[in-house]
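Exercise: predict the fold of this chain.
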Amino acid sequence: MNSKEQYDLVVVGGGAIGLATAYHSAKMGKKVLVLEARQFFHHSGSSGDIMRMFRILYSTRQEVERAIEALKIWHKLEEECGEKLLWMTGQLNFGSEKSTAGAQGEYKKVKEVLEHLKRPCISLSKEEIEKEFHLTKLGYDGYFSPDNGVMNVPLILRTFYKLARQNLATLIEKAEVTSLKVDNKSVTVTVNTGETYTAKKCVIACGAHTNRVLEKIESRPKYQLNYAIWNMVYDYYATDPKIDSIYPGMWVFFGEGEDALYYGFPPVPWGPPNLAKIGWESATQRIHGTEIAKNPADRVDLVPAKEDVQKTVKFIKEHCLGVEPYPVYSGNCVHPHFGDHKAVLDRLPEHTNVVVCAGGWSFKFLPLYAEWIYRLTFEDATLEDLSCEDLAINRTAPNPDPQKAKKREQVSVLIESESTSSSS
């Protein structure tokens, strides 16, 4: 069945990026359709769990300024919706200056950028860290940055959903894309119910499922993205209820060696009392390669990885005072990981009316990325106009497989060219 309506924009994916994009584009007066393959607010994709980290702590000036810009938009959004979406707790970074850990930036460079930009940065001794954060036997000084906080994930998703609907966006769930036909003037999307929808523009914002959707594009050339799917584990641990503030803010420990990052969140007002989220900032369950990365269901297991939980439990036993080293509950979410830890936010090569956004720990940037997606989609802006050339789809990045990380490769991979199609 064909829908007789034509939309200005169809968004494939109803998670965080998809809903933020729908809201902003609808607010700007565009007729928007969102297609979500599952139910809205499910916890099995890239937008699961009840909290995320908002931070300005990056190794480069560009990324810090980008996060600061996003924070300003978050505060405007809070005023608009009348909700407190971010809980600004601040964040402690501490650990080895030799750390070159990726997802949280480089420990030493992060502090240097903060000081260069004259952002508040308070030095803490290892004794002060043990007293205030109840973290012991680590032997490192650190610094505390107040411009960071905890994001209320369930409220944020529901706020974008509500605001999108208020601005007359159409939101359809259980509508898995089976076909995408793209030409210079329109995009025609068919879903598993047999319904077909037409729009002038398309945004693909479906996280770890991005390659599955790109595979459905019938036009040539066809691309896949060179990401690995990380099956990220998160755990919650009981804290001593007699300690009023087990963690006065978020914390990240930068250890030496590969994958030596650990983090902690304080118990949050919208979560269970005296439960802290503590975890290892990596994943043992990873799917590599453009072929096997098509389907997140192909990951090793559908439950949290035992090895990941064990790493966190060991860290808690050795270093976290006032925390029971037994997870109360654990979960996982799938993350499309590019080798440089950054997102892709760009037009699809030779399909300029299709924009792709995936990866890069992007939750903190949601309202900013939604604005950028709108400008790329409807205002013919370039990545240079937006100062985000580092998110280009045609850039090179380290291979997302750690064993091949020294090799730089294209983020986008051409799998079928027009000549391939004509000769077949």
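Check your answer against the key: The chain has a mean pLDDT of 91.
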